[in-house]
């Protein structure tokens, strides 16, 4: 029997306050810092889902749609929305939050693929994804659609430039 895990089993939220060492000369988050936070969040979501160590296989396109300013809080949220034999697809959203006013705005979204590893470091099977509630099924569908939309947009940009 194939083990099952739910989307909610993988839900992960991290927060980071943006400090001076993580900013550019404009006082905004360095892109590499945000990518680092996203990768960690996706790794935790993957490991919670798989019950194994997981490694990054790929990260889809990233557009920074709004900056995260010095002193703001980055809220990084991730969850598993797809599972194959040994790989796991994770959506990660990053929001910039003013901690005093509570205002939140989307900074970026991307999609990761992770591979679960056994104790010898070899790919190992992962549970099947189960979405037992309507809310989980809706989150999964939203992630699938958003990923397809993002990939289409990237493909169109490449086609327009070539």
Automatic annotation (TrEMBL):
Offer an example of a GO molecular function term for this protein: long-chain fatty acyl-CoA hydrolase activity
Pfam families from the entry? 4HBT (PF03061)
Q: Which InterPro entries match?
A: Cytosol_ACT (IPR040170), HOTDOG_ACOT (IPR033120), HotDog_dom_sf (IPR029069), Thioestr_dom (IPR006683)
User: Is Hydrolase among this UniProt entry's keywords?
Assistant: yes
What keywords is this UniProt entry annotated with? Hydrolase
Q: What biological-process GO terms show up in the record?
A: acyl-CoA metabolic process; fatty acid catabolic process
What is the protein name stated in its UniProt record? Answer: Acyl-CoA thioesterase
């Amino acid at each position: 029997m194939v083990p099952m895990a739910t989307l909610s089993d993988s839900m992960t939220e991290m927060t980071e306050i943006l400090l001076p060492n993580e900013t550019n000369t404009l006082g905004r988050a360095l892109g590499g810092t945000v990518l680092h936070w996203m990768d960690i969040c996706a790794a935790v979501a993957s490991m919670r889902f798989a019950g194994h160590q997981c490694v990054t296989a790929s990260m889809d396109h990233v557009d920074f749609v709004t900056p995260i300013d010095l002193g703001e809080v980055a809220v990084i949220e991730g969850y598993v929305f797809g599972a194959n034999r040994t790989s796991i697809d994770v959506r990660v959203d990053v929001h910039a939050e003013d901690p005093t006013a509570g205002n939140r705005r989307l900074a970026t979204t991307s999609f990761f693929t992770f591979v679960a590893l056994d104790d010898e470091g070899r790919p190992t099977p992962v549970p099947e994804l189960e979405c037992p509630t309507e809310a989980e099924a809706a989150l999964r569908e939203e992630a699938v659609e958003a990923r397809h939309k993002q990939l289409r947009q990237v493909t169109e940009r490449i086609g327009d430039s070539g």
